[in-house]
Amino acid sequence: MFNKRTKIKTVLSTEASEQQITVMGWVRSFRNNQFLAVNDGSTIHNLQVVLPLGSQPEETLKRLTTSAAVKATGKLIASLGKGQSVELVAENLEILGDSDGEKYPLQPKKHSLEFLREKAHLRFRTNTFSAVFRVRNAVAFAIHQFFQERGFVYLHTPIITASDAEGAGEMFRVTTLPLNGTAPRNEHGDIDFKEDFFGRSTNLTVSGQLEGELGATALGEIYTFGPTFRAENSNTTRHLAEF
Question: CA 157, CA 226: separation in Å to the nearest integer?
């Protein structure tokens, strides 16, 4: 079923030829019981799917709510409306998954970042998060490409480490010991990390610098690419807990 579909990103870059194609995605909006805005995640832009009047039963139209999963097959034609060059006139429409329009939290309107933080499982479907992660993907790819074309070796440095990287910042502790006050103690009354998973105190890395230096002494030109973690309670754009 999935290998016969065409990604919306490809459809939007295709000239209208009245060829029959199949798309699958989520409903972003539905207006006038005729015009569906569908997105499948391949692009930030939506494809307009036109339902000819009277082609769908009333029961189906009621199920076309925000985020309902649909499969549409039809002809790709030049769009008569503004905002898109092509549109799909549906000859067949199948609802693959229903969505409760009254309970679905991401309605077609602007949402604050504070609100989206509470909807982590759905926020990637918003234009804001979709754009941010597409930009991050492009930047990361460009950085890798830059170093790879110049013969550098990409070094995966440990995320869990006992090193503080020359005191680069406060660290997040990693432990399997109980946090309810029953962790084992040594003769000095301190937590006995010898009983922990790694047999010593470990943390999330604040920098891959030291491992990078070791790698450079054997592999030559190397580069690392995070992630790193800093336990600094500073809510600014310049001090993130993870980067």
Answer: 8
